[in-house]
Design a protein that fits this description.
By secondary structure, this protein is an alpha/beta fold. It has twelve helices and seven strands. The chain folds into two domains: 87 residues, no CATH class; 183 residues, Rossmann fold, CATH 3.40.50.450. Strand 1, helix 5 and strand 2 form a beta-alpha-beta unit.
Length: 275
């Protein structure tokens, strides 16, 4: 019986992983992962070697699968519908239909240099005819990015969770503001609305957004360019860590190449969108 319970727990873990991929990834590949779990429970218990509990265990696995996956499919469909609605309601850019997500924080860093970097990045993106998607706040570097883009006559779309709308003080003057239910939905919607991603100097929140979008690229969930603005060498140590990951066998050279970096925003955008 203990063996059966272990296999059941393994089954639930597999289902939970697929639930995460489908709801957060929003892709056909993630949805197809559910189909691979349809018979995994029954096969696992059939091969457990404990005939006394075989029938009961298979039924338990099926009930667990049906309950969790049934809920997951419902959540997945609602999630995709929300993304489609947001994409269709977002206003078109004046010059070309391109938007770049900027990952940055609700703090401004030490001194004025990071605000200057953020402002220059926003202006450069607008001058290229692209719109900006960002975290929706009006404080810290987020506010700097939004205000600089608006002053340059650009489109600015914000995405902010209800829980942070007060703390980060949602920006009321941008082109469009999406207020969502969770951080997961925030990142998924920003990814859906954007054609590329730039991380400015920042802290844990910026790293969370950046690392997740790189991971999605590694998993082939998207094929959009991802860049680190390494202004003033801010990300030198992080880039060195990525190189060490390759040397130590945790990241392939190909996947290391998913992270583009440059010291200036013009050079970074040129690498992300050549030609």
């Amino acid at each position: 019986m203990a063996l059966c319970l272990k296999v059941r727990d393994d089954l639930i873990a597999v289902i939970a992983l697929n639930l995460h991929d489908a709801v957060l990834g929003g892709t056909a590949r993630a949805a197809q992962a559910f189909e691979r779990t349809r018979n995994v429970g029954e096969r696992a218990f059939r091969n457990s070697g404990d005939d006394r509990h075989g029938a009961r265990s298979a039924a338990l696995a099926k009930n667990t699968h049906d309950a969790v996956v049934g809920y997951a499919r419902c959540a997945f469909l609602l999630h995709c519908d929300a993304l489609r609605q947001a994409r269709s309601s977002a206003p078109p850019n004046a010059v070309r239909d391109m938007r770049i997500a900027i990952f940055c924080g609700a703090r401004s860093g030490t001194g004025d240099r990071y605000a200057e970097i953020a402002s220059a990045a926003a202006r450069a993106i607008i001058l290229r005819g692209a719109g900006i998607v960002y975290g929706g706040g009006r404080v810290g570097l987020m506010g700097v990015v939004a205000d600089a883009a608006l002053q340059a006559g650009g489109e600015v779309i914000g995405v902010i969770p209800h829980a942070l709308a007060g703390e980060e003080i949602a920006h009321g003057g941008i082109t469009q503001l999406h207020v969502v239910d969770s951080m997961h939905e925030r990142k998924a919607l920003m990814a859906e609305l954007s054609d590329g991603f730039v991380a400015l100097p920042g802290g844990f929140g910026t790293m969370d957004e950046f690392c997740e979008i790189v991971t999605w690229a590694q998993l082939r969930i998207h094929a959009k360019p991802v860049g680190l603005l390494n202004a003033g060498g801010y990300y030198d140590e992080l880039l060195a860590l990525f190189d060490k990951m390759v040397r130590e066998g945790f990241v392939t050279p190909r996947n290391r190449g998913l992270v583009l970096s440059a010291a200036s925003i013009d050079a970074l955008l040129g690498a992300m969108f050549p030609g």
